[in-house]
Design brief:
One of its GO terms (cellular component) is plasma membrane. This protein is 63% helix and 10% strand. The chain is α/β, with parallel strands linked by helices. The strands form three sheets. Strands 6-9-10-3-11-12 form a six-stranded mixed beta sheet. Strands 2-1-4-5 form a four-stranded antiparallel beta sheet, with no helix packed on it. A two-stranded antiparallel sheet has the order 7-8. A hairpin with a 2-residue loop joins strand 4 (389-394) and strand 5 (397-398). Helix 6 runs antiparallel to helix 10, helix 7 (159-202) packs antiparallel against helix 9 (213-266) and helix 14 (438-447) packs across helix 16 (474-487). The mean pLDDT is 83.
Length: 575
């Protein structure tokens, strides 16, 4: 999976990678040439007391060094551009894929895990691409080229290379083999930390209301400790690896000095040659260490790539037809025909045999006890889920055969828990329709009974809204969400218990404004308060996921025991 992802995304920047290879090759050749110049300075300059040769060769050596540095910097720049661009593309594709997921896939992965995969996991792959591009040529050239030049310099000491290099590779292999399962475990625990943190931030009010801070702290401490334990094991391997590398390198250098000194003393080898051989030993070791470092990064990046691939390879259960219906034969109509729905992994369906319809401009209310399936039912209209059985029709077309963008354009959804985005009142309302004018925004706010409190804000429509709308009250947040759906100018408005945070007076005014200003719009209303839907054209009563009644308020009082019990339970409250 790692290779597949790297090839897929880095191939888009092959010219940058070609430049990296060229400049890395030049940098490596210059690096290998420097010890030979150093050998000549010592043997032909210092030993012969030839100052002019020392200056001439030294200046040339300086020029080669500057060229090596320049080539290395340019190669690193191009490598950074290619890897960062690939990382950007991976994040964009993961985000686009997740955006197309239905609620089923989001629940399957978990929000915390999806965030980790699009941030930390992509970063691991991106870092490997960066390091791989910069070391891909340098490491093998330094190792192989260093061996060739070292043998040419002094074949008598080459046996030291035959001992030290395999020893380095054995150490690296043993460490890397133990890191693979640790990295996989680390990423999983990172998911857990993100999930716990996200839950605590999202539910901070509940945590404080039930005085659960200490328990939540313990829960986070447990997740944090788990990732620390795995991280410590990884760190221990790193702590073991590099000292072993340096030990092997230093022992090899000492051996070169020892055995090389014997040859110098016997007069068979010059001092400069031993210095050059030592430098080549260092370059060989450096190349092997670079390759080992890459080998260490590969397992973690491979785990991350596998997790990214799982997201990219997961097909949404919400199929998008390539030539879906875009022109709906009966605009504004909604119909359920024998609909059944079962959540993944559930033993029994939460909805069974649901059949009813709403004609254009009608108001259809859905009532029932908690857990009756009301929210699940209306979630099938915009295809947040797909029905397990039967069919849902919008505008006369089966939603599974409709073009998704066209389907969503006909629907304005106000969810049970309205969410506002970081920005302004205007930017949140224009989330429904980007080209909406200020007059249209104010009109939508007026219908949603939100104009008064927005006008009282310091900057009106340009007043700031924090993430989630936490700087406004629940009722204000709900009215802004309703206004946002109205701004969309949909043919169908779906209200999923969207009036629960409103007082009775505001609720009544809002419903009157909706009915008066948007008589042509079909309204599907999930309600808890019977008083909110007594004037609906049709009321659907759910119990245990099945329809136990459908009709007007007056008809249901006569025919539905369940509906009559709901009404009687609220008579002393708001009926």
């Amino acid at each position: 999976m790692l290779g597949k992802i790297l090839v897929r995304y880095l191939s888009r920047y092959k010219w940058l990678l070609a430049a990296v290879l060229v400049f890395q090759f030049a940098s490596a050749i210059a690096t290998l040439y420097l010890p030979r110049l150093n050998e000549d300075i010592i043997n032909k300059g210092v030993a012969q007391s030839d100052t002019e040769y020392i200056w001439r060769t030294g200046l040339f050596m300086l020029a080669v060094s500057l060229g090596q540095i320049t080539a290395s910097v340019i190669a690193t720049y191009f490598a950074a551009r290619a890897s960062m661009s690939a990382g950007r593309d991976i994040r964009a594709d993961v985000f686009g894929k997740v955006s197309g997921f239905s609620e089923r896939e989001v629940s399957q992965f978990g929000a915390g895990s999806l965030i980790t995969r699009n941030t930390n996991d992509v970063q691991q792959v991106q870092m490997l691409a960066m390091m791989g591009a910069t070391m891909l040529v340098t490491a093998p050239l330094l190792a192989i080229g260093g061996i060739i030049f070292a043998v040419q310099t002094n074949i008598g000491l080459s046996w030291l290379i035959a001992v030290s290099v395999p020893l380095l590779l054995i150490v690296a292999g043993l460490v890397v083999s133990r890191m693979v399962p640790l990295f996989r475990s680390y990423q999983g625990r990172l998911d857990t930390v993100n999930r716990v943190m996200r839950e605590q931030l999202t539910g901070v009010r509940v945590v404080r209301a039930f005085v659960r801070e200490r328990i939540e702290e313990e829960r986070f401490r447990g997740a944090n400790t788990d990732i620390m334990v795995v991280g410590r094991k990884v760190g221990s391997l790193f702590v073991l690896l590099f000292p072993l590398f340096m030990l092997i390198l230093n022992v090899t250098v000492v051996a070169v000095v020892w055995f090389g000194g014997i040859e110098v003393n016997s007069g068979t080898v010059q001092v400069g040659t031993i210095f050059a051989f030592m430098q080549y030993i260092g370059q060989i070791m450096g190349g092997v260490i670079m390759a080992s470092f890459m080998a260490i990064m590969i397992p973690r990046a491979a785990v991350s790539a596998e997790r990214i691939g799982e997201v990219l390879d997961t097909e949404s259960s919400m199929e998008r037809p390539t030539n879906g219906v875009t022109d709906f034969p009966t605009p504004g109509s909604v119909a359920f025909d024998g609909v059944e729905f079962t959540y993944p992994g559930a033993d029994s369906p939460v909805l069974t045999g649901i059949s009813f319809g709403a004609e254009p401009g009608e108001t259809v209310a859905i009532v029932g006890s908690t857990g009756a399936g009301k929210t699940t039912l209306v979630s099938l209209i915009p295809r947040l889920f797909d029905a397990s059985g039967g069919a849902v029709f919008v505008g006369g077309a089966d939603v599974r055969e409709a073009d998704v963008e066209s389907l969503w354009a006909t629907i304005g959804l106000v969810p049970q828990r309205p969410f506002l985005f970081t920005g302004t009142v205007a930017s949140n309302l224009r989330y429904g329709r980007e080209d909406a004018t200020d007059e249209e925004l104010w009109h939508a706010l007026e219908i949603a009974q939100g104009r008064d409190f927005v006008e009282e804000m310091p900057q009106g429509l340009e007043s700031r809204i924090t993430q989630g709308g936490t700087n406004v009250s629940g009722g204000q947040r709900q009215r802004l969400a309703i206004a946002r759906a109205i701004v969309r100018q949909p043919q169908i408005l779906v209200f999923d218990d969207s009036f629960s945070a409103l007082d009775l007076t505001t609720d009544a005014r809002l419903r009157q404004a909706l009915w008066r200003e948007l008589p042509h719009v079909t309204k599907i209303v999930v309600a808890q308060r019977v008083s909110s839907i007594t004037d609906a054209d049709r009321i659907v009563v759910l119990e245990g996921g099945t329809m136990v009644g459908v009709g007007t308020h007056a008809e249901l009082l006569e025919t539905s025991t369940t509906y009559r019990e709901i009404v009687e339970s609220q008579l002393g409250v708001d009926a």
